[in-house]
């Protein structure tokens, strides 16, 4: 006997991006804030994976392969996207669902070329306010050499219902 009310797939109560969020290292405690777009298409394309996730320090990796420019080195735009991803996610963690972070300034200085392996971005807060945040992101290679230093400022806008 088939009862349409009790045999509904359990998928309906699952998070719509559960597989993606797991693949990118997002802790389940953050999933409720990511029901609309998951981690976003660019994080998927760049293969960014979060390895440490707190408001005081956010860490993620990204492969150089697949994110290179014409000379075969890490594309500066990919480094900037990693930095903005970390800074925006850190601002969202700080806001804890009460505000939506919107990047208003991003600057990045490239010190050394990324040639292979993984790069790691470490994001730490400079300023955590009620209307804005500012974070520093240091990007290093597998040998722990600094490749880039970035700073992002996010405005915290009220959440629209």
UniProtKB/TrEMBL annotation:
GO terms for cellular component: cytosol. Coiled coil: none annotated. Keywords: Hydrolase. One of its GO terms (molecular function) is 1,4-dihydroxy-2-naphthoyl-CoA thioesterase activity. It comes from the Bacteria. CDD domains: PaaI_thioesterase. Residues 71-146 form the Thioesterase domain. Pfam families: 4HBT. Belongs to the thioesterase PaaI family. This is Hotdog fold thioesterase.
